[in-house]
TrEMBL record:
GO terms for biological process: 'de novo' IMP biosynthetic process. This is Phosphoribosylglycinamide formyltransferase. InterPro entries: Formyl_transf_N, Formyl_transf_N_sf, GART, GART_AS. Pathway: Purine metabolism; IMP biosynthesis via de novo pathway; N(2)-formyl-N(1)-(5-phospho-D-ribosyl)glycinamide from N(1)-(5-phospho-D-ribosyl)glycinamide (10-formyl THF route): step 1/1. The gene is purN.
Amino acid sequence: MQTPSGHSVESSSAKRLVVLASGGGSNLAALLAAHGDPAYGARVVGVVSDRPDAGALDLARDAGVASAVVAMKDFEDRTAWNAGVLEAVSVFQPDYVVLAGFMRILAPEVVRRFEGRMINTHPALLPSFPGAQGVRDALAHGVKVTGCTVHLVDDGVDTGPILAQVAVPVQDGDDEPTLTERIKVAERALLVETVGRVAREGLYVTGRRATIGR
């Protein structure tokens, strides 16, 4: 595991966000663009990736945000890797953990450590079309409307309480790349809005019902 690198400057009142990302970091970029406004209520203080070549790490460096790499190949098994992820995230003392294109399933003990504070996005209107192929599955099913979901993470796969959703119409002639791109645009905006509201107004969870603010 590579230790955290870089630095960040934050408002003492801002909620601390740690972002987990595996790819280019388009959702991270949207959060970084928002967190410069003190009124947003949250700042990204750390980025953790399972890939040393992830573009998200470059975004973190350019923004002066600390980062850490927890690559699977550096650990003897998945149990050790999950312990590494937990350690890397915990170093930043997050108020909330945001999974932004993180392509690994975390062990229940990691999820439980941040229960009610780990936020994920999914490119479909959950509970429909969970899993890694949400866009493909929606197209195969012939739906006329799909969308994206921001939800809390639990021990299942895309089964946590839903925080927010937005619909995206399926257009005639859509294929997986074109629909995915339109969903990503909606997803970035929804994630930024939802995380900001959670940071400013608080989050209250009763069973499967999650409410932002009172």
